Amino acid sequence: MTDPFLHTPVSPLKAGLGCKCPRCGEGRLFTGYLTLPERCPNCGLDYSPFDSADGPAVFIILILGFFIVALALLVEVKFSPPLWVHIVLWAPLTIIGSLAMLRPFKALMIALQYHFKAEEGKTD
C-alpha cells in the first residue's frame, strides 16, 4: 500500500488555486462545484482523509469582508449615496465574490493539508 502523503514537487498554492490534485497537479480536485471524488482520476490519490471543513469560509469572510467594508466606507464618504445604492452595490458583489472564492480556497486548504501531512487527531 502506498503512503497517501508522499512528498510532492507540486506547489500547494499552484495545485490549490488551480483546483488540481495536490499530489500530481494534473487531476481535477472536484467533480461538481465543491464535491470531492473518492480518488484522483490521474494518480489515484485517496481524497477521503482530506476535509477543509469551514476554514475556507472563515478566510473568505475575513478577506472579502475587509475589502467590501473598505469600499463601502469609501463610497459613503466620497458620494454619500442613499441606502438602496449600497444594497444594490455590495450585496451582489459580496455574494458573487464569496462564490467565486470558495472553490479555490477549499482546494488550497486541501492542498495544504496534503503538503503538511495534516491528519485528524488520534488517541492511543
Folded structure, characterized:
This protein is an all-alpha fold. The protein has one domain. It has helices spanning 12-17, 55-79, 83-115. Helix 2 (55-79) packs antiparallel against helix 3 (83-115). The protein is elongated and about 55 Å long.
Mean pLDDT across residues: 90
Q: Care to count the β-strands?
A: 0
Strand content: under 5%
Biggest sheet overview: none
Rg: 19 Å
Distance between the termini: 23 Å
Number of domains: 1
What shape does the CA trace take? elongated
Please count the helical segments: 3
User: What is the H/E string?
Assistant: HHH
Residue share in helices? Answer: 40-55%
| Low-pLDDT segments, ≥5 res | none
Q: Please state the structural category.
A: mainly alpha
InterPro entries: DUF983
Keywords: Membrane, Transmembrane, Transmembrane helix
Protein name: DUF983 domain-containing protein
Transmembrane segments: 57-77, 83-102
Q: What's the arrangement of secondary structure elements?
A:
Blueprint: H1 12-17, H2 55-79, H3 83-115
Labels describing this entry:
124 residues; mainly alpha; 3 helices; 52% helix; transmembrane; DUF983 domain-containing protein; transmembrane helix; membrane
